[in-house]
Amino acid sequence: MKKLAKLLCLALAVVMLFGLAACTGGNQPAAGDPTKAADPTPDNQGTGEKFKVGICQLAPHPALDAATEGFIDALNEKLPGQVDIDNQNAAGDTPTCATIINGFVSNKVDLIMANATAPLQAAASATDTIPVLGTSITEYGVALNIANFSGTVGSNVSGTSDLAPLDQQAQMIKEWYPDAKTVGLIYCSAEPNSQYQVDNVQKYLESMGYTCKQYAFSDTNDMASVVQNACDNSDVLYVPTDNTAANNTGIINNICQGVKPVFAGEEGICGGCGIATLSISYYDIGYKTGEMAADILANGADISAMPIEYAPQFVKKYNPVTCEALGLTPPEGYEAIELG
Fold first, then answer.
1. CB count, 10 Å around CB of 120?
2. CB half-sphere exposure, 131, CA atoms < 13 A
3. pLDDT tens digits for 81-113?
4. What is the pLDDT of residues 262-313, one digit of tens each?
């Protein structure tokens, strides 16, 4: 009887063991069965891996600020809690960009975001291994001195461009001032992307019959005199996407408001001194840059194969204050800039 009791207890234990296995393992994928593998977490979110990202922004300015904001929002949404961001601003000083970037390299960040041309150039010079994503860059071939640029840098650098189509910018001038004769192109000679823009806008305008002249200032010291000269000798003025101009629209506005119309390469400059622009969203291109960063950090995307991305849409906008000062009624299809 004792032997029989022991056998019954053993049998009961085996039954209970199999029942427990069934309860705990019924929802688990079978070993080696790929059809029942657990779904991977999108973009490696929740893996716990931490990344260090350094942001170098050239100067405080609404457009650049918006691009940085979009970049940070995208990273935090794609990789919540996984990214430590060191966000630094060079306050418009090019040598400071190099100092900031060298600090990122020394701290061995996983990725650098360069907001504007000077930070991009500093980052490209400082490292050929850390991924560098630019934003608010007009033309990467010009910024990085790449001949016959194809749209992909092919190194540790990629990013997004803030270039609105230059032929359409020239066409805006024709739309507003078809009878004008002369166009003055104002830009900072220290910014190669500005030179690229005015050279190409000039070609388009001259093909439409305008006479164009370039007026280059070297910095804020000679800016007022150059703008005054352009204003005195031109029917219409054009200012490209130019960081120095963007930080000093008050100088341009003090000379030109109510006197000569200024067309601008981007909304921030137009809001400060222009009458019309072909606008992009800097937040959107910053956000796209953040998405690219998340793909590189979490999924190991190859930055050398990433083409430069552009704004998805362009909007015609006008400045109601400067238009009123010149007695202008915007053509159909233009939206008013919301001025702060």
1. 28
2. 24
3. 999 999 999 999 999 999 999 999 999 999 999
4. 999 999 999 999 999 999 999 999 999 999 999 999 999 999 999 999 998 8
Residues 6+ apart with CB under 8 A from 290: 70, 71, 72, 73, 74, 75, 78
Tell whether the model's pLDDT for residue 17 goes beyond 80. Answer: no
Token pair for residue 333?
A: 């299809």
Structure tokens at 330: 């915007």
pLDDT at 48: 67
Q: Classify 296 as helix, strand or coil.
A: helix
Return the pLDDT at 10.
43
- Is pLDDT of 12 > 70? no
Q: Is residue 39's pLDDT more than 60?
A: no
The pLDDT of 191-213, averaged and rounded, is: 96
Per DSSP, the three-state class of 183 is strand
The string of DSSP codes covering 97-115 is HHHHHHHHHHTT-SEEEEE
> Residue 47: what pLDDT?
55
**What is the C-alpha separation between 125 and 101, in angstroms, rounded?**
10
- The edge-to-edge listing of strands for the beta sheet with 83-89 is 83-89, 51-57, 111-115, 132-137, 157-161, 309-310
CB 113 within 8 Å of CB 101: no
Buried b (16+ CB within 10 A) or exposed e, 308-332: bbbbeebbbbbbeebbebeebebee
CA 162 to chain CA centroid, Å, is: 6
pTM: 0.77
Q: For tokens 């929740």, name the residue.
A: 46
Residues in contact with 234: Cβ distance below 8 Å, sequence separation at least 6, in sequence order: 182, 183, 184, 213, 260
Cα–Cα distance, 110 to 319 (Å, whole number) = 41
